[in-house]
Structures are given as C-alpha cells and as structure tokens.
Amino acid sequence: MSNIKNNEFLGLREAAKDAFNKAYAPYSKFHVGAAALTTSGKIVKGCNVENASYGLTVCAERNCLAQGVISGERKFSAIVIYTNQEKLTPPCGACRQVIVEFLSPEALVIAVNHNNEQKQWTVNELLPDAFTPKDLLENKDLN
Ligand code: THU
Fold this sequence. Notes:
By secondary structure, the protein is α+β, with helices and mostly antiparallel strands. The chain has helices spanning 6-20, 60-70, 93-102, 123-126; strands at residues 33-38, 43-47, 76-83, 103-113, 118-122.
C-alpha cells in the first residue's frame, strides 16, 4: 500500500464492503461496492445501480466518485473495489476514464474480495496515455 496508510485501507475496505451490500444488481447479480479516500481524509462510497433498461446501469466506481463530487470533494488518493468474485475485479474502461478525471496517475486502485485477497494498480497502469482535462486546454473555445 504505497500511498495510503494501512488504517486508511482498512476503512476503505469496510466502506466498499458496506456499499457492496447495498448494490442494486437484480439483472446481472454481480454486486460491486467501491469506496474512495478524499485527499482531505474522508471516505465516500458507491455501489452499482442497474436498470431494466440495461444500458443505463452505472458502475460502483462512478457512483462512488459522483458521491464524492456531490459532497464537495474532487480529489481522491485511492479507490477500493469490493466484490465476492474469486477473480479480483478491475474497473471497466468507462470507470477508468472517470477515475483518471479525479485521481492522480500515481494513485492506487485496489480490488478486494470476500476472501480478503487484494490486487492493486496505479491509475496510470490502468489507463496509460489517458485523455485528461489538460488535453482540453488547447481547445481555444474553452479558454
Ligand atoms: N460493474 C461495476 O460496478 N464496476 C465495474 O468496474 C465492472 C462492472 C457492474 C456493472 C453491472 O451492474 C455489473 O457490474 C455487471 O457488469
């Protein structure tokens, strides 16, 4: 756990598990919980929320970061993803892009499961050469 303390990780793991228990996934039955640590030291969490119109499903990671934004937080130092899968669950492509928006390239994304196993990546490992807000700075219409 290079950039967060062990007690912070344990708090994130617990929060992600709590979110996992609230997942709304009646269609896939694939429950996911996520928890992120804000750079100010708070924990925010989210679960996946599916819909009868399947394509409207929102993943746990994106709901988690949106929960942070709505509570006034825009910078996070780590995100933990909890599932009950034997194979640890990495974030999907769409979530990787949203993670890049709010976490630094060196920040950790940590997948955990019910067996207390874990696997971690840096944000940069999950989405190298990402399109970021900086890429928009050359767009004169936005300046
Ligand atoms: N899911 C997440 O919540 N996060 C991911 O990164 C991968 C997929 C959810 C979406 C859907 O509700 C279920 O898992 C199966 O794809």
